[in-house]
Amino acid sequence: MKDGKTVILCIDDDPDILSYLRIVLESAGYVMAEAPSAEEGLRIYRDCKPDLIIVDLMMEEVDAGTSFVRELRALGNKAPIFMLSSTGDNLAMAIDTTQLGLAGVLQKPVSKERLLNLIKAKLG
After folding, report:
1. 55: left (phi over 0), alpha (psi -120 to 50) or beta
2. CB-side exposure of 108: number of CA atoms within 13 Å?
3. pLDDT, tens only, 68-119
4. pTM, 2 dp
5. Rounded to whole angstroms, how far apart are CA atoms 76 and 109?
6. Dist. CA 79–CA 9, nearest whole Å
7. Using an 8 Å Cβ cutoff, are 52 and 122 in contact?
8. Are 108 and 57 in contact (CB under 8 A)?
């Protein structure tokens, strides 16, 4: 939380996706922190202690998103994590989302309504 508002960390190497997420999340009253890579995401995670995380699967490396999630688990992360992917539902067949502890997988492009409903359902 920052100033009483929920903080959502978004990590994606596509600036258009980050811009879209910022518009959607901030218009709904959330505070958004962002990073263009998994490495930068880890640094910002430590600084802002987000309430929820949205991370792209494929960034600087094909599985950068899953590596990021594993590192967060090693750090003791308790915030829900949603994986954002252009492969969407096929991602669940490619990786074990349960083992990673993901709250869910979002298909790009994700609609504003779906995104906000999932966040609200997860955070209450």
Report:
1. beta
2. 18
3. 999 999 999 999 999 988 875 565 566 677 778 889 888 888 999 999 999 9
4. 0.90
5. 30
6. 10
7. yes
8. no
Alpha carbon of residue 29 to chain centroid: 17
Residue 68: closest CA among 11, 5, 6: 11
- Strand order through the sheet with 7-11: 31-35, 7-11, 52-56, 81-85, 104-107
Distances (CA, A) of 70 to 30, 40, 89, 92, 111: 25, 15, 20, 16, 27
Output the six-digit token pair for 121: 């359902």
Number of H helices, E strands in the chain: 6, 5
Token digits for 120? 């609200």
- Which residues does 24 contact at the CB level (< 8 Å), separation at least 6? 112, 115, 116
**Two tokens at 104?**
């869910």
